[in-house]
Amino acid sequence: MDIDSILALLISLLFQFFTIFLINIFLLNYKISKQDIVPVILFILLPTILLFLAFGPFAAFYLLISLIMFFKRKSNSHIFILHILISFILAVIIDHLVSIISVHLFAQVSSESLFFILRELMFLLLLFATAYLYKRIFTYFIHKNIFSNRVLYLFASIVFLTLLFFYLNIAMMPDYHSYEAIQLNLWIFSIYLVLILVIAAALVYLSIKHYNIRAKEKEQENFLNYLQLLEQTNEDTRKFKHDYINILASLRYYIEKEDMQSLKNYFYDSILPTQQKEIANNMMLDELNKLKIDGLKGLLTTKFIHARENGIPIHFEVTEEILHIQLDIIELNRVLGILLDNAIEASKQLDKPLIRVAFIKLEQSIMIVISNKIQEDLQVSIQDVFRKGFSTKGGKRGLGLSILKEIINANNHVILHTKIDTQAFIQELEIQQEAK
Predict the structure, then answer these.
(1) Which residue ranges does the record assign to the Sensor histidine kinase NatK-like C-terminal domain (predicted)?
(2) Long-range Cβ contact pairs of 99-106 (< 8 A, separation 24 or more)
(3) Which residue, among 142, 316, 153, 165, has the nearest Cα to 229 in the 3D structure?
């Protein structure tokens, strides 16, 4: 191999490895900084090229490991490993496909430099196109919360074994750069890929089926909580009516004895709390009955009961009857579940907590407002709130709002307004009734 051929090979390798790096930046939504450039060149790209010249295709596994270590610093989950593995699978298949196509499509190109440029540009465009398609499909299923971690780990294992098979097959070829070897590998990869896609389709089907079952179970559980609140309210009403005569007798006793202090104590300690609880439950049920969406009604009841168990009062209001909200009930429940969970968690830290929830029917949209009191000395910006991994409570509980933002971005007719003042954290969710 002459110097020109070696130089062309080095440039091609550098271009392709750098393209794989860029693809992963795109898939992982990573924002590269100036400080990243030198480490990427010195510790990822150049060592991979040197290892390729020494060990051939297996140098790709150094690139794989180094990319995993590089992107791990900015990732809060292990899904990024699956994205990196997929990018390698796509790169191998497209590299073989472009090698076959370019021989026929650019057969009349006499300049080797021009042929090389056209081939690498085709590789770049096809790789980005397939990566974009993969990202759209994957994002759709992730937003639907269909895949469990176990399924994702299983799929990542299958993808890794596929990648290993691809590179073993390439390495076993006596001359893997020849047209015949590339053509044979492409056929083998295509058949193998079809089998993998069938397995992936089966996993998706089973995951969707399991997801729908879980959603139905959750909806039933939430509705049972609503019935529990209804029964509890009726029971409290029956008890109050049953004790009505006894209450009057006790009041009469204190009045006849002119024991005003005991009368006050009896009223404020025994009668008023029971009356306030009954009134609060009746008001909540009256407002819930204005929502004609059983799945949503059940979720709200579950969250309100959870808040009450933690001593957090909730002021709930529905301005007028709502028959339908233009958002998938599962996604709507996920969004409101995240907002209410965060409001309840934040309220647990306060001496006098209060959560306000309102459903406001506008002319062409539904506005859902959730606000909770916050600590007066809390210094938080809206940008901080939606940063993945942020939480004023520590741990990983801050992931909820970043997931929420991803769901909102996936629905063009849904808008989220966030406000923070000295006394409250306010989330206004506006859902257009006609999707744009």
Answers:
(1) 328-432
(2) 99/179, 99/182, 100/179, 100/182, 100/183, 100/186, 103/179
(3) 316
DSSP secondary-structure letter at 176? T
* Cβ neighbours of 366 (radius 10 Å): 20
Q: Residue 426's Cα: distance from chain center in Å?
A: 21
Burial-class residue 133 by CB neighbours within 10 Å (0-12, 13-18, 19+).
exposed
Q: Angle at the Cα of 115 (from 111 to 119), degrees rounded to 5?
A: 175
Instruction: Go through 198-224 and write b for each residue having 16 or more CB atoms within 10 A of its CB, e for each that does not.
Output: eeeeebbeebeeebeeebeebbeebbe
Q: How many residues belong to the chain?
A: 436
Stretch 20-24: mean pLDDT: 93
Structure tokens at 3: 């110097």
pLDDT tens-digit readout, 131-187: 999 998 888 777 666 777 788 888 889 999 999 999 888 888 777 778 888 888 889
Number of other residues whose CB lies within 10 A of the CB of residue 230:
15
State residue 278's pLDDT score: 53
pLDDT, one tens digit per residue, over 292-343 is 887 788 888 888 888 888 889 888 999 999 999 998 888 888 899 899 998 9
Dihedral pair phi/psi, residue 81, rounded to 5°: -65, -40
Strand, helix or coil for residue 299: helix
Residue 420 identity: I
Domains detected in the chain? 3-208 (no CATH), 289-436 (3.30.565.10)
Pairwise CA distance, residues 326 & 415, whole Å: 12
Cα(86)–Cα(143) distance, integer angstroms: 19
Average pLDDT of the residues in 69-82: 83
* 314 class by beta-carbon count within 10 Å (0-12 exposed, 13-18 middle, 19+ buried): buried
Give the angle subtended at the CA of 420 by the CAs of 415 and 421, to the nearest 5°: 140
Phi then psi dihedrals of residue 67, to 5 deg: -70, -40
